[in-house]
Amino acid sequence: MIRSKGSCIVLLTIFILFVSFLFSSVSYSQKRTTIDSLLKLLDKTKDSSKVVILRQLSWEYRSIDTSKAISFGKAALVEAIKLNLKYEQTDIMGRLGVYKRNQGNYSKAMDYYFKSLEIAQKNNFLKLEALEYNNIGDIYNRLGIYDQALDYVRKALNISTKLNDKYNLSYIYHMFGLIYMNNSSTDSALISFRKSLHYQNELKLQTGIASSYQYIGMIHFKKASYDSSHIYYNRALEIFNLMNDRVGIANIYKCIGEYYNQKGNYKCALEYFTKSMQLIKLFGGIPQVNKDAAEGLKHTYTKLGNFERALYYQDFATKIKDSISNNIYTQKITRLTENFKFDIKAKEHEIIQKQKEEILNERIRYQRTQLNFFIIVFVLMIVLVGIIIFFYRDKNLAYKALNLKKDEIVELNNGLIIANIEIKVQKEEIENQRDILQKQSDNLTQLNFTKDKLFSIIAHDLRVPFNSIIGFSDYIKENFHLLSLEEIKEMNGLINQTGITTLRILENLLNWAKTQINQVTIYKESVNISAIINEIIKDFYPQANNKKIKLIYETTSTLNVYVDRNMVSTILRNLISNSIKYTKLGGEIFIMASQKDDHVEISIQDNGVGMSTEIKTKLFTSNVNPSTIGTLNEKGTGLGLAICNEFVKKLDGKIWVESEVDKGSTFKFTLPLGL
After folding, report:
1. pLDDT at 1
2. Strand partners, 668
């Protein structure tokens, strides 16, 4: 009996999937055999079976050669679109998103994910819909936008729980673990990774099991349970080696290197970090792992006394870190900007639709007017006939007919009144939509201003101190044997002071940027304000001592405030730094805290240069003001007071300044009273 062509294709597809599944958990030689078998089948098949083979080839190459994985994936997508295979299109676009994510191209990955999600929703592919929600959550997690990441992963969890889809649930709980780990919720992360491991063991998903072992080990490492972390790392490494998963192996080598650094076994640490970086180089580069391995080597060479190699890997890690940070920041801005554009286009479409409806309503009103005219003429004719009938026939019947027509006219008039009311409501809705669009446009303008300001500060204010640090360090390096110990000590002090100043500029830059895009997370608690002030005074002692300035703290009692500790520390650091900057040599700075009703008032008083009334009125605006030069030519970015103003508002307090030229300044702010 000869089988039909359709039956053969179905059987071939099932056979391919079976072979792929069979070989997915064996050694590299078997994986290579799987790829070779698929390549041989590729030329002998067509239509839907060819799509399946191309898609599987793409997936097999994902941890071996990313460029080939993407090439086969795109070829599979082209064939699926030709054959109008919606399910395959959805699945392949999701896989392409994974490859782009592994390359660090989050914007392109997100584009693939959303296109896949759109097709899945239109065709009710619930499993793929949940998978794409989880993938989108992964991108937001990598960008550090944890609230949105959790929102998308929870959507995936709801769908997969209803379907009892254990495969998707294993990866969803793994994603919860990553988000909680990145957000410093280690206990929640450990629970999520163990749930993921439970499903992966049940389904025998070897790659997933190895990944769960790795991240459980990382959580133990964060909790200082180093020996436990080493056990889990070795379990993961055993599976990754069997799978010849180069990405996984490179990750584990890096983790084991960190373990040996912590244990003081720097020879073993050097071996594992080096193997990690060699694997990464062969694979084509994994920026985050490359950066972590380089930082580990810097620490190892420092401990081994090889400072030249340590400096080399520090520079190498810094370049990768800057590249990753710039890429993530750019993609955050791109993502937010694209969201605004999408919303604005949607609103514009909505307004155009409303306008079309209004034109249609105008035509309906015109037709109703004509209809009313004919009705009136008709009614008049009926009335005339009624009068005639009244004189010649039964008066009672004519009267009833007239009343009936009158009721119909009243009903028509009521309909017109209702139509007019609906038109007014629609007009108000259009005006409201225009107001919303204007507000969104203003937000986008503010976002662009923030981006321009950040790039301006990075280009000008950060370049100078970095050039100073590099210049001093190069000078010491080239003239080390010619310099005296005192000269080296003096230059080292200058490098240290420049580094501290640069770090504060960076902290202010990041804090201000977060306030502008509403990415500041507040964790309020009851804390002792004296403890925070004393800690900050201790940090500023070297800077104040350099100008012979006394830092004096006065308080009448122990006071607790209900605030975010980090935000209060940032406010105090900026205000005390400003006072030191504008106070002359030998001056004094008084810091005071006292209770005022249901809040605590904190003041920083100096006897510095003071300021004019014109300057005072511009200090606490939403925009950043140009910074002025300090008494020893100290420079700043103008971000400090803008950040103080934003943070005090978020903590439900007030901030103001009292100052006169040449008589000093007193900055005051309030905070809610704690328990």
Report:
1. 37
2. 603, 656
